[in-house]
Design a protein that fits this description.
Elements lengths: L2 H15 L10 H17 L11 H11 L38 E2 L3 H4 L6 E11 L1 E2 L9 E2 L4 E12 L5 E4 L6 E6 L3 E4 L13 E4 L4 E11 L9 E6 L3 E6 L2
Parallel strand pairs: 1-12
Antiparallel strand pairs: 2-5, 3-4, 5-10, 6-9, 7-8, 7-11, 11-12
Helix pairs in contact: 1-2
């Protein structure tokens, strides 16, 4: 309380007490008026006093601050779409893949394996081991064996005795050619640019015509010193055939 407030309190006390003298005659209404005036004056000049009246504007501002903000629906993140449940599998109509693979059938001849026209024959006529092979019709191309190896050239003859020209197309087939020497060393035929390569032969064979064809393999030179057996195996997805060359 400041000095001005203390002075007013003393004045009120003096008025009420008369500095030790007898109180002046006054009505109850006058006494209440003086007491109320003194109390109001003290509260007015008391720095620590706070009004009990509430400022409605402050209450409104406080309520506005506490109100939850309304989010603009357009700016809100979209909720994740519900994924449709997987449809049950139709087991009755689901195709079943047969994993069992059947072995190719054994052909009864070279002609049936290569599906040659009626009247066209194909025979294996011999073999040779060599370091280099040029062929009869290749003047600018030759096969050379890798160092420490030798070439095995299997020789064939195709002949047309059907009475008319025949188209022969082995080039478009997907046949596999493998040779086994002494029943231990098995090799696949080389892909060559030889005109007479049996695996890539394609052409018209006139009636009575004959062609010399070959298949070339590369073997270890140590295997060719003592050859006791040579077996050629032909195979595709449908047929297979085996020739005992030696």
């Amino acid at each position: 309380m400041n000095k001005k407030g203390i002075g007013i309190m003393c004045l009120a006390t003096m008025l009420l007490t008369g500095c030790g003298a007898a109180l002046p005659d006054m009505t109850d209404e006058d006494a209440n008026a003086i007491g109320e005036y003194a109390a109001i004056t003290l509260l007015k000049y008391d720095a620590n006093s706070r009004s009990r009246l509430v400022d409605l504007s402050q209450i409104e501002q406080s309520e506005e601050a506490q109100e939850p903000s309304v989010t603009d629906p357009s700016s809100a993140e979209p909720l994740p779409e519900e994924q449709p449940s997987a449809e049950p599998l139709d087991l009755e109509n689901t195709p079943v893949t047969d994993t069992n693979t059947s072995e190719p059938e054994m052909a009864d001849s070279l002609e049936s394996f290569f599906e040659l026209p009626e009247g066209v024959s194909l025979l294996c006529t011999g073999y040779e081991f060599t370091q280099s092979y040029e062929g009869e019709e290749n003047t600018h191309f030759a096969l050379e064996a890798t160092e420490g190896k030798e070439l095995l050239v299997l020789q064939f003859t195709v002949q047309n005795q059907s009475g008319s020209s025949q188209e022969i197309n082995i080039f478009d087939r997907r046949d596999n050619y493998r040779v086994s020497v002494n029943a231990s060393d098995t090799r696949t035929a080389l892909s060559t640019m030889l005109i007479e390569d049996l695996s890539t032969y394609k052409g018209a064979l006139p009636d009575g015509g004959t062609e010399k064809l070959v298949l070339v393999f590369e073997l270890e030179a140590a295997q060719t010193g003592s050859v006791e057996s040579i077996v050629l195996s032909l195979k595709n997805d449908v047929n297979s055939y085996t020739i005992q060359v030696l």
